TrEMBL record:
InterPro entries per record: CSD (IPR011129), CSP_DNA-bd (IPR002059), NA-bd_OB-fold (IPR012340), RHF-like (IPR036567), RHF/RaiA (IPR003489)
Example of a GO cellular component annotation carried by this entry: cytosol
SUPFAM superfamilies: Nucleic acid-binding proteins (SSF50249), Ribosome binding protein Y (YfiA homologue) (SSF69754)
Superkingdom, taxonomy of origin: Bacteria
Region spans: Disordered: 164-186
Pfam families: CSD, Ribosomal_S30AE
Boundaries of every CSD domain copy: 116-178
Organism, scientific name: Thiohalobacter thiocyanaticus
MF term (GO), any: nucleic acid binding
Protein name: HPF/RaiA family ribosome-associated protein
Length: 186
């Protein structure tokens, strides 16, 4: 980190043991992203007037070039957060997950969901038809492949989407669905 760790305690006294735990967790975050500029941590006791059953809230603010991440775990009804170390662990785990997600995004490892195969019905026979895809392929389908079972309402030119599989005589469509007003964009 370019700027030393900033640690604040609210509604509680400073604790060397808690500070050590926070510093260890903060140091480990650099394993997940090497460009962390600064790390600010707030450890807060939510109900100072209680003698037991006190819950802790921990907030971790990370600054990176072009990004600021905030990880916080509100204890809510989580009795584990009656232990300050459990609250620290959970907040830093959340920060780690955010850093990993940022790494994946920066490395372009984000999942891309492809549009399902689709095309237009161009040939209809009594029990089967053919779909012309946007890339020029010709896909066979049987009337039983139509999901809604409305084969008789199907017209040449209707847009459909389908699951593709290899049949005995080449590619064929299964689970053919007509596309209504919500068109698939490529």
């Amino acid at each position: 980190m370019q700027i030393p760790l900033e640690l604040s305690f609210r509604n509680m006294d400073h604790s060397d043991a808690v500070e050590t735990a926070v510093r260890e967790k903060a140091d480990k975050l650099e394993q997940f992203h090497s460009n962390i500029t600064s790390c600010r941590v707030i450890v807060e006791a939510l109900h100072r007037h209680h003698h037991k059953g006190n819950t802790y809230h921990v907030r971790v603010d990370l600054t990176l070039p072009g990004h600021e991440l905030v990880a916080s775990r509100d204890p809510g009804q989580n009795h584990a957060h009656e232990d300050v170390y459990a609250a620290i662990r959970d907040a830093f785990n959340a920060a780690r997950r955010q850093l990993e997600a940022l790494n994946h995004k920066q490395q372009r490892q984000v999942k891309h969901h492809e549009a399902p195969p689709h095309g237009r019905v161009h040939i209809l026979d009594r029990d089967h038809g053919r779909i012309q895809t946007s890339d020029g392929r010709d896909i066979y389908f049987h009337r039983n492949s139509l999901v809604n079972g409305e084969f008789d309402r199907l017209q040449p030119g209707d847009e459909v989407r389908f699951d593709e599989e290899m049949g005995d005589e080449g590619p064929q469509a299964s689970s053919v669905r007509t596309i209504g007003k919500h068109h698939i964009v490529e």
